[in-house]
Each structure stands twice: as C-alpha cells, then as structure tokens.
Amino acid sequence: MRRLFVIFVALVATLTAANLKLYFKDGSYQLVREYKVEGDHLKYYSVERSDWEEIPAELADLKRTDAEAGSRQASLDKKSKQVTDEEEAAKAEREEIRRIPRDPGVYMLENDQLRIFKLADAAVKNNKGRQILKSVTPIPIVAGKSTLEIQGEHSTNILTDTRPEFFLQLSLEDSFGIVKLSSQKGVRIVERISVLPVVNEPVEERDIVPTFTKQLTDSGLYRIWPQEALEKGEYAVIEYTEGKVDGRIWDFRIQ
Q: Which residues belong to CATH 2.30.30.100 in the chain?
C-alpha cells in the first residue's frame, strides 16, 4: 500500500511538472505543456485546446514564466526527495524489525550488530528483609516503606551513546519507560514503594526519563529512546503493571 502511494505521488508530480504557466505582458497566462521561441515568434502547446498555437514573442513575459517554472520545479524536486527519503527510512526500519527477536526483552542494534540485554535480578526490600521478584508475578507487599532494587552499584551494560535507542518486545500489554536509578551501598534503587495501611495498595515512585516511543508491530514491539541526552549515570528500561510491583528491568550505564 505504501509503495502504491509513492508511485501515485511520483506520477502526480510528473504530470503536474509537465504543465506550466506561460505569462503574457498584459498579466494573463496560458497553461501550456511546452513552448519554444523561433525568431520573433513563440510557439506553445496549449493544454486547454490540445494543440500548438503561435504568437509574436514580444507578447510573452518569458522572464516571469521561467522564474515561476524554476521555483515550481524546485518545490516538486523537494517533495519528491521527501517521499524518497521517507520510503528509504521505512525500508530501513522494516529491515531492523526483521532482525529483532520476538522473545520478550530489550535489544539494541550497535554498529549493525544485535545486542541482547539480560533481565536484571530484582528484589523488594523492606523492614522484614529482601524478597526476590520472580518473572512477572507480583509479590505481596507489607504496609510501610519498601524499595525495588537490583544488585550492584554499577551496571555492566555500558553505553557511550547519550541518546540510545532500544527495541522493547513486551511480555504483556503493560506500561514501560526508562528510569534513572540511584546507587546505594551494593545496590541500585529502581523505585520507592509506599503501601497505604488501610487499603494495602502500593504507591510506586520512579525517576522517569522523558522518552519518545514508537510501536513497530502489532505483537508489542516498540522503539524507545530518551527525548534529551542522558547524563552519566545508572539507568534502566522497565516494563511494569502499575500498582502490582512486578517490574521487569534491563539496566544500563551511560559512561
């Protein structure tokens, strides 16, 4: 369908470019296919009458005619280039999509090589200790303050691009984003959790990074990247269900 649209646009541009306004010195004009000056006469092919006509050359305003035709052609060339660039970008994106596994997870293309990020081991820590977060199954949270954390003060996934682009294949139809992590002794904090004592509902606080996202497939493949350059530090791509403390975390470090 996209290819047919491109062909249609190109055809319209070609047909439109074939016609031009031949201006006369009295301010009027004729829509013509082409014209040529022969001595002191000018011949032109009239689009309206589908035939050649001839007038004295001194009646035509060729300076205005040529100026407008040049400007119009430049505009058509620009539009044609935009269509071509969009088609090439769409083709490149389709090639990228074919290279991304359909298994849930986070991926990146670096120097034309696929990089697969490992799911981080996460745990919820409260005043009763640490409880491992397993797969996508939420764990019971006790009233009070807790933190969702991953081991180590620094990620082993080092990136030098301050605006990295990730491919995220969702495991569920969940929320997702990029968060900035805070390092403490031996761990990195992904989010802070407050559990309301009466209703026993968790409130999760994250340091969300503003991002752009684009859905690439109906099966839940997304491209996600930060709106602004990231400062040096610890970050993670996360997938989560709000209010269930079930985050899936893929950590990285900007260095």
A: 2-99
